[in-house]
Design goal:
Layout (H helix, E strand, L loop, with lengths): L1 H16 L2 H8 L5 H19 L6 E2 L8 E3 L2 H5 L4 E2 L1 H17 L5 E3 L23 E5 L2 E2 L48 E2 L1 H13 L3 E5 L2 H6 L7 E2 L11 E6 L1
Parallel strand pairs: 2-4, 8-9
Antiparallel strand pairs: 1-3, 5-10, 6-7, 8-10
Helix pairs in contact: 1-2, 2-3, 5-6
């Protein structure tokens, strides 16, 4: 039973954070296991920021003094904020362009990638495994129409879907969850269309960007051109709560 418990913790922490499973195995050598795990994990996470460039990855900022910020402490604590240097440069460029046109704008990054090893999966995403993909939060405003810098409807930026028509049938297996039961509990915020539209046009103008995923009804609502904007398919997660981008 102990082997099963420790094996499950190792697997779960590895899936969630990539390096947490190894930290747990090391912690099992000590009597004060929880404290040892926290120390090993904190040390490994700090070291990952320093070592990741050797694997072609760099960390996105968790600080609060930038036009580009990781949306939640969760993505920082679980090492899901790593990208290639080229993708970080693209994100910084676009976020600066949006902030220059709309002063005070903060572009928030959700899930990106783990620090090490191309091909290592980042569940529940199907393609975040090479440092070239990242998800961006939508921009929101309050009921009075005031833009809310860096704020999202849900605590982690995902799962608060915008209303719109979909042609996707109910199929299985599928990651296209609707989470209808959660929708009434999210913050009552509206999509800030001007900033979101401008962000999309700037992403489309970047030579490094290969593809963008945004739900078709939002593409129509924002009156966007189709250049490099694709549909992820009916078996993948919805993209009317965030924007997925990937570079070449």
């Amino acid at each position: 039973m102990r082997i099963l418990i420790h094996g499950s913790l190792f697997l779960g922490l590895t899936v969630l954070t990539q390096i947490g499973g190894l930290a747990w195995l090391l912690a099992c050598l000590f009597r004060r296991r929880t404290l040892a795990f926290l120390l090993f994990y904190a040390g490994a996470s700090f070291s990952a920021v320093l070592i990741a460039p050797q694997f072609g990855r760099v960390a996105l900022s968790c600080g609060a003094n930038s036009t580009l910020q990781v949306q939640s402490w969760f993505y920082c604590a679980t090492n899901r904020r790593f990208v290639t240097p080229q993708l970080r440069e693209t994100l910084e460029t676009v976020s600066s362009q949006v902030a220059e046109t709309y002063p005070g704008t903060i572009t928030a990054v959700l899930d990106a990638n783990f620090p090490f090893l191309d091909g290592f999966p980042l569940p529940p995403h199907l393609s975040h495994n090479d440092g070239k993909k990242a998800d961006l939060a939508l921009y929101y405003k309050d009921v009075d129409g005031t833009y809310l810098p860096g704020q999202t409807r849900s605590p982690v930026g995902y799962f608060a879907f915008e209303d719109g028509r979909t042609h996707c049938p109910k199929v299985w297996p599928s990651l296209r969850w609707d989470f209808d039961v959660l929708q009434p509990y999210w913050r009552d915020l509206a999509l800030e269309g001007n900033r979101t539209r401008y962000l999309m046009t700037q992403l489309q103008a970047q030579p490094s960007v290969r593809r963008i995923f945004l739900e078709p009804h939002l593409v129509t609502q924002l009156d966007l051109g189709q250049d490099r904007i694709g549909f992820q398919g009916c078996r993948a997660a919805r993209h009317d709560d965030h924007i997925h981008i990937e570079i070449k």
